[in-house]
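Lecture 7 notes. Example A: sequence first, then its structure tokens.
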Amino acid sequence: MKILIIEDDKAMADIERDFLEMNGFEIEHETDGAKGMERALKGGFNLILLDLMLPGKDGFEICRHIRSKTDVPILMVTARIEDVDKIRGFGIGADDYISKPFSPTELVARVKAHIAQYERLKNIAVKDGASSGDAEIDLGYLKINPATRRVYAFDREVALTNKEYELLYFLVSNTEKVFSKEQLYDRIWGEDMYGDIKTVTVHIKRLREKTEKNPINPLHIQTVWGTGYRFSV
């Protein structure tokens, strides 16, 4: 398993490298944001550890660009812990946050959990594709192809992150059923994850922006006040 660390603080990067290498990971490290992004886009990594404050390009810009090209897990490492930063990061495709200072053992646990979940979801996608062939879920305005994991809304393809796709597919596969934020978090992110449950709200918002005609007044991805969310046809 190979991890790219994009971090300008050498002491912090050394701590991350030491503990991850002790747990069997191969590490590459970049201190400059632009160079880190360039290396990330070449591929070959199982996870990217991305500092928020970087010279060259900041973490938000790097995350947005990487996510537009690949669904590899991105774990943001930052001393900024304001909710607005977390929401912004989740909104542009970050999978999780870990705030400085942090326990190295917690970092390793989160890295392992995100990589394991990513591999599990890829395996599920392969199995679903093999069993369903090219069959699409066709709701008229919305089409989902499980074999290719492509989604079309109003006859245009929409780019979804891995977790956005999994969340949408799960809701569509359970039409009219209501799920709490906790249930959705456990199903999509996994019970062993350490992340913030607010990410469910952010991902729902992103899905509405990408698949609803009027995201402010959604017809299909509905909020059931005091309970959670459901997908309605």
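Example B, a different protein, same format:
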Amino acid sequence: MVVDARIERSQDLYRRSVMGGEHPALDQADGELDAVEAELALARGRIRHGRFLARRAGDETEDPAELAAFERALALFRGLGDVRGEGESLFWIGIVHQVVRRDHDTAVPLLERARELAARVGDQETRAEAIRHLGIADHAAGRLVSAREHLTASSEIRREIGLLDGVASNMVGLGYIAAAEGRHDDAAAILAEAHTLARAHGAHNIVLQIEEAQANIR
């Protein structure tokens, strides 16, 4: 595993310092371990966010360790000059503000910066996620055209990289937008396609969201 390789590399660098007098190797060792810690903090934050989503129906209490983990990852990735990691960390910090705290105003600049950095390094998954959540912010603010454009763009990227369950997830929002624009036949067609796609890829939570949307916009 990459993490194991980095830890082993730090041990080798330590030995080079102690045995060979190559003391600058210790700084390199710190960098290897900072990279491990950054990835671990990001992973811990994601798991905590998953727990928030799992319990959200009955308990929307924020776990402060979630944001702290993402902020730690951001600081470490920045220190390493890791643009991909910085963009992904900014995205997740934006998610905490948008999803957990329902603060779109704080979230949007973070999501925009995450989108920019992800595009710079070719991180299509984070780019698609950031665009999706910018669309969610637009939808919440009643900017339906912009919301549709963002969700459509996110879906195009997700199709390209094979995240078809994510396409189905975006289509839930697109269905609601179509209904809000008075395009009820389009909304029904979008949600029917999304239902087929979500079931085909085992996205059971998305299936439930689609069925809820279908019931709400009839």
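Note on Example B: The radius of gyration is 21 Å. The chain has ten helices and no strands.
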